[in-house]
Specification:
- Strand 3, helix 1 and strand 4 form a beta-alpha-beta unit.
- The strands form 3 sheets. The chain has a 9-stranded parallel β-sheet. A 5-stranded antiparallel β-sheet has the order 1-16-19-14-13. It has a 5-stranded antiparallel β-sheet with strand order 2-12-15-18-17, with no helix packed on it.
- It is α/β, with parallel strands linked by helices.
- The longest helix is centred in the middle third of the chain and has 25 residues.
- The chain has 11 helices and 19 strands.
- The protein binds ligand 9MR.
- The site of ligand 9MR has 11 residues, from loops.
């Protein structure tokens, strides 16, 4: 076993490359075994960060509250290397067939902020409850065809999906009624327009095709297999005319999948497709605290979510990315412990994911004075963002401030671990289970690079603890 000390601020070992400017990672096909998202060096790329942000659903220009400084603060304090950035069909195509390029210009400006701070962007075409004309957000009014059926806003808001007018709007969009094929044509073309505009933007790493698709009146399995799958295929094909490199993320219906059920989505054609389920155990939505019996039930739902996500992803031949996770009520007891446990499920699975959501309010990670609040402190934990092989588990022990990460090596490129300065003021001590390591720490980005050598072991494990 070898031990090395990472000295923050010390120059890198002379024979080793310095940590490069974080690239908008270009990708290669997955590294054997279960597929993972990979970077240009063939390493598993763990994309962690936050959805940004809920409030953009209602702001006049469709932008979230964040400024350039907030993005820099996020990179520094939370160590995000990805953002699931909400974009809205209603702002892209406010009038039928007319794109609002001023809106896309504003998105482009935010992409530059993220790029500058080493944060990759997944553009998420967001919706909840169809669109504003149906009491939700997402679709433009012209694309909201309810046939005069009623819509009453319900509490909790997700019940509004079941209102007759909302169900009808989705039935038209997915082609269940067969009466308005132009709606999906426009949605697909809107994606093509976005890919044409941003496909070569170095900040962009992918597209999330449809936030939490709702089935309308079609039964769930039939909807996912027969309406959603072909709609996704059309979007993928349209995007690929302009963008061959970036990842395309697909989701099943929120109903079911978010609670830990499997999806009935069918395999899709194309490269660099990924499966991006959300995780919201039903108990959490109903306000059950993460304590005692409630905790056991929520943990069972999370375990089921993991098992089903892994099975579905293997069947679909896609890597997994957790597109939304969070605890929706900051007052609920156990909210920090829950999010910490979900982050450890991600560590164990060797996948990335994004918190819902980077809010300015107290459900986000910030205090009013922009320091991290207690949830922000949970999110700001060390994680392996690049793993030089096939992930084989890992966990973060918050009490000991110790991260372990294991993998089956496939490349000599370094592992990269983001270290929060708040937890590692004197740097980190790195121990390898096998062979030796050399390390190099980039103080500016907070990224520790770890090269393993002198080992033929099938699995490597690093332990990273405060010095
Ligand atoms: O947290 C969001 C809440 O404030 C909104 O009222 C609601 C409707 O727009 O959306 C919530 O965010 C949801 C997200 O858009 C989709 N996935 C589930 C999120 C939490 O419910």
């Amino acid at each position: 076993s070898g031990a090395a000390v990472a000295d923050p601020g010390a120059p890198p070992p002379p024979d080793l490359p310095r940590y490069a400017e974080p690239p908008a990672e270009r990708h290669r096909p997955p590294v054997g075994g279960q597929p993972y998202i990979t970077d240009a060096q063939g390493r598993t790329l763990v994309l962690r960060g936050m959805n940004t942000a809920d409030d953009s659903k209602w702001s006049e220009d469709g932008m979230p509250w964040i400024s350039k400084e907030d993005v820099a603060r996020e990179a520094k304090l939370i160590g995000s290397n990805v953002v699931r950035y909400l974009i809205h069909w209603e702002h892209i195509e406010p009038q039928k067939g007319k794109y609002d390029d001023a809106y896309l210009d504003k998105v482009a400006e935010r992409l530059r902020w993220y790029r500058k701070n080493g944060i990759n962007v997944v553009l998420d075409m967001h919706q909840d409850v169809y669109g504003k004309a149906a009491t939700g957000n997402g679709a433009p009014a012209w694309a909201t065809i309810t046939d005069g059926l009623p819509i009453v806003r319900r509490d909790p808001w997700i019940l509004t999906y079941l209102e007759p007018g909302v169900v009808r709007a989705f039935d038209h969009l997915w082609g269940a009624t067969g009466k308005h094929p132009e709606l999906m044509d426009h949605y697909v073309k809107a994606w093509a327009h976005v890919a044409k505009r941003f496909g070569n933007d170095p900040a962009v790493i992918g597209y999330d095709l449809f936030n939490e698709p709702f089935r309308g009146s079609t039964e769930r399995a039939k909807f996912e297999a027969e309406l959603l799958t072909p709609a996704y295929q059309r979007m993928i094909d349209a995007i690929r005319r302009y963008d061959r490199d970036n990842w395309i993320f697909v989701e099943g219906t929120a109903e079911g999948v978010n609670w830990g059920d499997r999806t009935h989505l069918q395999p899709l054609r194309g490269s660099r497709l990924a499966y991006a389920p959300h995780l919201y155990p039903l108990e959490l939505d109903s306000g059950v605290p993460y304590e005692g019996e409630g905790k056991a039930a929520i943990q069972a739902a999370v375990a089921s979510w993991r098992k089903n996500a892994e099975q579905d992803a293997a069947r679909l031949k896609m890597p997994i990315w957790l597109g939304e996770h969070g605890f929706l009520d900051a007052d609920n007891a156990g909210f920090r412990a829950y999010v910490a446990d979900v982050l450890n499920v991600m560590n164990q699975m060797g996948i990335g994911g994004v918190y819902w959501s980077n809010n300015e309010s107290r459900t986000g990670p910030w205090e009013r004075d922009k320091r991290l609040n207690p949830m922000g402190q949970v999110l700001a934990q060390p994680y392996a963002r690049a793993i030089p092989g096939v992930p084989a588990g890992g966990s973060f022990d918050a009490a000991a401030k110790t991260l372990t990460v294991s993998w089956k090596p496939t490349t000599r490129a370094p592992a990269e671990v983001w270290l929060p300065a708040a937890l590692y003021p004197n740097g980190a001590k790195v121990t390898a289970a096998s062979g030796k390591v050399r390390t190099s720490f980039d103080r500016r980005t907070g990224v520790l690079s770890v090269w393993s050598y002198g080992s033929r072991a099938a699995t490597q494990t690093l332990t990273i603890a405060p010095r």
